[in-house]
Write a structure and sequence with these properties.
With 259 residues, the protein is of the alpha+beta class. It is built from 8 helices and 10 strands. The strands form 3 sheets. A 6-stranded antiparallel β-sheet has the order 4-5-6-9-8-7.
Length: 259
Amino acid sequence: MLPQPPRPPSPPGLSPPGLSVDRASPVPLYFQLAQQLQAAVESGALPPGTLLGNEIDLATRLGLSRPTVRQAIQSLVDKGLLVRRRGVGTQVVHSSVRRPLELSSLYDDLAASGQRPATRVLADRLEPAGPEAAAALGVAEGTEVRYLERLRSARGEPLALLRNHLPGDLLDADGARMESAGLYGLLRAAGLTLHSARQTVGARAATAAEAEPLGERPGAPLLTMERTTTDATGRVVEFGSHLYRASRYSFEFQLLARG
């Protein structure tokens, strides 16, 4: 029998210390491991670009089967937190953005969480209001309104396609400011006090035109959000229709029990 060639060494990798599973828990072992790995990614303990340790080594260290470890890792691949690269291994990608449902701008939320937001202005023009925008803004159809379309990125990766209609006289045209600050920051700088908003969240498949700037494939799942915002005087100052990559973004709700 011919001698078997030695197994090639595993690529260097890293797994966070302190991983453990509770075998007495009713929670599946793969899910316990996936939750701990996800927490490590989202906290920065496993930063983007990190290569995870070999599945066999991780399974041995935790006393788990290799299929259990593979299932945990695959669940995070499906969420977009990890990616399998041929010849490289399993690698951490950018963590998803969890955003509370509050009256705040995506730009400000990303900046507050240290995710380095960036904006590319795709459209900034005055145009006649169509039926939907006119109804949302409370103006007559055909009234001149301002249309903005921006691509918002975080940590160098596309995250959201933002489309907004504003009253035509609300802001001065300034593309440079639009790329260096959030819309709500500009509204506040113009002396407006934002008061409340009505918001609808949904989901649908990406069209080819939407998928391309977001770095997704046509038909990929997108989260949708429509928001109509009023200021302290009751005037509608924004009608937003936004698209978010479902693999990189989620809305966070706080639910209270009825008394």
